[in-house]
Amino acid sequence: xxxxxxxxxxxxxxxxxxxxxxxxxxxxxxxxxxxxxxxxxxxxxxxxxxxxxxxxxxxxxxxxxxxxxxxxxxxxxxxxxxxxxxxxxxxxxxxxxxxxxxxxxxxxxxxxxxxxxxxxxxxx
Amino acid sequence: xxxxxxxxxxxxxxxxxxxxxxxxxxxxxxxxxxxxxxxxxxxxxxxxxxxxxxxxxxxxxxxxxxxxxxxxxxxxxxxxxxxxxxxxxxxxxxxxxxxxxxxxxxxxxxxxxxxxxxxxxxxxxxxxxxxxxxxxxxxxxxxxxxxxxxxxxxxxxxxxxxxxxxxxxxxxxxxxxxxxxxxxxxxxxxxxxxxxxxxxxxxxxxxxxxxxxxxxxxxxxxxxxxxxxxxxxxxxxxxxxxxxxxxxxxxxxxxxxxxxxxxxxxxxxxxxxxxxxxxxxxxxxxxxxxxxxxxxxxxxxxxxxxxxxxxxxxxxxxxxxxxxxxxxxxxxxxxxxxxxxxxxxxxxxxxxxxxxxxxxxxxxxxxxxxxxxxxxxxxxxxxxxxxxxxxxxxxxxxxxxxxxxxxxxxxxxxxxxxxxxxxxxxxxxxxxxxxxxxxxxxxxxxxxxxxxxxxxxxxxxxxxxxxxxxxxxxxxxxxxxxxxxxxxxxxxxxxxxxxxxxxxxxxxxxxxxxxxxxxxxxxxxxxxxxxxxxxxxxxxxxxxxxxxxxxxxxxxxxxxxxxxxxxxxxxxxxxxxxxxxxxxxxxxxxxxxxxxxxxxxxxxxxxxxxxxxxxxxxxxxxxxxxxxxxxxxxxxxxxxxxxxxxxxxxxxxxxxxxxxxxxxxxxxxxxxxxxxxxxxxxxxxxxxxxxxxxxxxxxxxxxxxxxxxxxxxxxxxxxxxxxxxxxxxxxxxxxxxxxxxxxxxxxxxxxxxxxxxxxxxxxxxxxxxxxxxxxxxxxxxxxxxxxxxxxxxxxxxxxxxxxxxxxxxxxxxxxxxxxxxxxxxxxxxxxxxxxxxxxxxxxxxxxxxxxxxxxxxxxxxxxxxxxxxxxxxxxxxxxxxx
Lengths: 124, 882
Hints:
The structure holds 2 protein chains of 2 kinds.
Chain A: E1 7-11, H1 15-27, E2 31-35, H2 38-42, H3 46-49, E3 52-56, H4 64-73, E4 79-84, H5 89-97, E5 102-105, H6 110-119
Parallel strand pairs in A: 1-2, 1-3, 3-4, 4-5
Chain B: H1 3-11, E1 15-19, E2 25-28, H2 30-35, H3 51-66, E3 71-79, E4 83-96, E5 99-109, H4 112-118, H5 123-132, E6 136-141, E7 146-149, H6 151-157, H7 161-165, H8 178-191, E8 195-202, E9 208-219, E10 225-234, H9 236-258, E11 262-266, E12 272-275, H10 277-283, H11 287-290, H12 301-317, E13 321-328, E14 334-345, E15 351-360, H13 362-384, E16 388-392, E17 398-401, H14 403-409, H15 413-416, H16 427-443, E18 447-454, E19 460-471, E20 477-486, H17 488-511, E21 513-519, E22 524-527, H18 529-535, H19 545-550, H20 554-569, E23 572-581, E24 587-598, E25 604-612, H21 614-668, H22 675-704, E26 711-713, H23 715-732, E27 736-740, E28 748-750, H24 752-770, E29 779-787, E30 790-797, H25 825-835, E31 839-844, E32 850-857, H26 861-865
Parallel strand pairs in B: 27-29
Antiparallel strand pairs in B: 1-2, 1-5, 3-4, 4-5, 6-7, 6-10, 8-9, 9-10, 11-12, 11-15, 13-14, 14-15, 16-17, 16-20, 18-19, 19-20, 21-22, 21-25, 23-24, 24-25, 26-28, 29-30, 30-32, 31-32
Helix pairs in contact in B: 1-9, 21-22, 21-23, 23-24, 24-25
């Protein structure tokens, strides 16, 4: 365990996910902020301080992969776990090649998410 | 008589004449004429005596001339100045072939009337007389011994009388002549007849000169011989002249005989007096046989009268002779000769002689005959030939033509000769005719051209005109033979063929179909123009199999190779596709239909047609592409997009539920359990589950509430488009489709693509239902009709059908009769049709298969403009079928 809690940001336009996922992540011992769009996230302090992100692929406005590129452009090294409601292995492998730690298809179980967080070293 | 001879005689110092055997004198020299006191030569003696005496003298003269022997005669001659003079005449015959042809005479003056009485005179008197005679006289006694010799003679000899009495043993007579003279004297003494001899006597200076010695006996009173008078006439000059003449004549004869042509002479009356050896050799005659008119016996009987007439006419007129006749040679064969003769005129313009030649013209005549024969034969050919013949002179005049040409024109030859101006030659061809024909006449080159001639019935017909010149042995053109061949039928056939070929070429070009013929033995290929175009080969190229193969892609090369192998084996039909690669690397698809068979020469040939189907193939490919795109679109729109949309909308609340459930479990199993968080997560789960159900309901609503724009549609057009799209499937499944489309079908209100999908799905359904059918024809019948404000489309198949209890369910989603089907197609159809406010139904046929149909309302003009969501009713009851 580390001294300070790791901080994870959830970015998803779906309200159900924004409500449900932070509680689960907190239960893993992480500190969490949730944002309804990529633009809101980028304008927040979390974009500077987050250690990881749970990022939806398809969103109105800036999409998840676009946000990933933007962060790369800004030199931010954040571990990203994508989540998507469309099960498309092609999209998943493309995102993994682009540097994501994982891509989970909705609905995913708490264990799936915990495994992904461990692989990305956001959880011990 | 030769001129030379005449001149010789003229120059002799004595009175000379010649006479013919009939008594006529034909020559007198000027000395004699002068002596007779005449101005011109006379042909008969004018005796100076009574009429009776003249007759007697003339009788004697003629009787002598009838004989063969030399003779002497005295007669008084009438003289214009002196009344009469005595003439002593001695004549010698010129004998040829035992026949006297001429008498040569020497005359001396004779004073017989005075001499005779003095015969019995004194010796002195006699001596005086002897001395007065200007010639040598010797007087012999009855025995022939010399008695007296006059002064002239003594002077000549330069010897004494005594010496001369011994002449028989001296050299006064030339030794060669001595025997003759002594013999003559001896015989004369013996017989008492006159003697004559020509001997050489030695002159005082030793030179021998020729003398004619004539001895006459003088009778005494008793009738015996009293004395002999021997007259010595110096004839040496004459002899020399005669010798010279003889020599000249021999020389001339030699020359004449040596000449390589026949030479003859004739007297003014036509009497032939000379022919040279050449003629004699030819005729096998002697000179004597030819003389006079003897030569005429070798003239051909057919030519004899003509020759005689012509020759007599020339003799009478004095014009040079020039005529032809045949003469028989020694071998019995006749040859043609040209008789030419020119008269020799004397100073007075009188004809003295004809000089003539015979020129052998047999070769020329033979050539002429051969030519005539050739012409005669040509004429036979001309009349027998099955074509029109015109014969022209070298100057282009029509001189003859055969019956066929007269029959064609029905005009006389004289009119046909004006072919360039009388309208029998077609005006359009006239210039060609004139140029070609006159050009050949000018150059001698054969002519060959075509023209139209006016037949007697007023129709024009095409002729080919060919002309050749006929030449004589010297190469000179003597005739033109023209052959006129009627080629009208051929021309027409050619024209017809040309038109037919043009027509065929057009058809080939329009249909993009070319033809070819390949000789399998020689690999020679014949192409039509369109085939050249399809293969993009220069039409001038000689096509071989290699040329063909060079245009093909590898697969096609192999295919063609197999076809040729099979064609070589025997007759057969071939139908195959090949791919051409043109020089610019573009690709052409070509269909080939061919047939192999043996031609009339026994060679195996491959004949066929090639059709450029590139456009058709490209259209087909485009169609296939469109069809697969459409089916992809259909699949994506009807399933893919729907599925993705459902997944997304449903997965979002499901993800919330699962996450909340996970959180709930975690907080409840925590120590202590966080009951507040668990409550929140449970509440959120209920909310998300309801939300998922809402998504489903909203999705369907979304789907059904989004109608495509409506338009006025021709259902027949839709049917046609779909059939075109499906034709490949129909062919592939060996299904025949017939249509029964209603005329004047009203327009339907609908969405084009959706209705296309309906028809296409129904049609595909029928095709699939037919796949299992093997025992009957696979048939589909598509029918359209309109009634009661709606338009119906029915598809009837002979497929496997379905169970009677299933008929109500076939349009339900996920209900299918097919093992690999999802059953969703017909349900989509149903929703589309019902969205169009139409109906969909299915019913089994009486024998096999089913008839499926749908109806849509007809379109009204207002409906088209106001097409919108409200126009397509939401059919909530269809939700249950999804």
